[in-house]
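debug: dumping io for the single-chain case to check the tokenizer round-trip. Nothing else runs in this session.
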Amino acid sequence: MKKLLLVSASIAGAVLSGCATQPATFKSFQAKDLNHLTKSAEYKQKANNFFVINDSSDSMEETYIGNAISAEPSAIKLEIEKELLSRMNKTIPNITLTSGLRSFGYGKCVSLGGYSTLNQAVQSYSKSAFNSAIESLACASGGSPMDKAIATTQADLTANSGNTALIIFSDGHDLDGSPVASATALKARYGDKLCIYTVWVGNPDEVEGRRTLLNVSNKGACGFSALASDIASPEGMAKFVEQVFFKRVALVASEGDADLDGVLDSKDQCPQTPLGATVNVQGCWIIKGIHFDTARHNIKSKYHHLLNNAATVLKRNPGLTIEVQGHTDNVGSDKYNLGLSERRANAVKHYLGHKAGKSASLTSKGYGETKPVVTNETAEGRAINRRVQLEVIKR
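debug: decoded output
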């Protein structure tokens, strides 16, 4: 049942519950320095603007259940959103950008009689100005008209030139209307100049909202969906900022990089990687971020968005024949590890086949422990070797 516009008495109670409690205190965050990306020939700035849509509806008053971000006392979801925005702001390197921020909900916490507030109109980006916009997200109330906020963003972005990253923070819970339809219309308006990214700040009983946010980001074609836990750490936030604002560029032709994956042909062990695939230092397409527990082949639900991104690459490069390759660490017998690697490969093949449909022909093969990419002498190395990678057999 969709959240309804609250009567004035309910709004007042929601405001009190969301704003009058003791604010959460977060552990200090040391942002990674990404300024080296601005000087590297391997990276190019791809977003000239970023615009944030923040969920300030009443569900964001609920306590955030998760250990990705430590806070005392327990934080409500709105505070988690603000903390993540602050960490993103601290991590963005010294590049020329414009920024803007809009929040949505109903009632006193958004705009009197409205559904959305323009907390910061599009302007030249500075960390101090954007921090002030974040701090203006004072409380949360009312329903969840994300669809209207996305539609209104069409007008917010009219002055932008270059490429824009639209970043939506929400729990995706009980949304009004159809945010997917609004995202589709926004993408049609701005085309290749717009990428949509979503960050799910939800609780375990709101997983349907996570699926909705994934569908919204998919309409941007060039964005992705992340979880709050993905980007909470300095390393996770640095990766998020890098992927939103930068792209790897082809090395100069004289160095030789035929598949344009950023790995020289002389070092590329997988020379037919399709465009958009995430590769390791050997140039092979890995489902980066997916880890299998020791002796297990099941794919955890928190990794589904990574496989969905891989399926998107397959859809953009139709007609490929792909071998899904399973690998293990060196714990256990050779025979057991071979079977385990085959089960891992089959699990990923089945998932990708369901998501990518007939975009690609998929086969699977297990390699056991025979092809480690790093040492098995450490726990970290063994975790990396428990992987699945994709190899193009035929274009």
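debug: round-trip ok. The chain has eleven helices and 14 strands.
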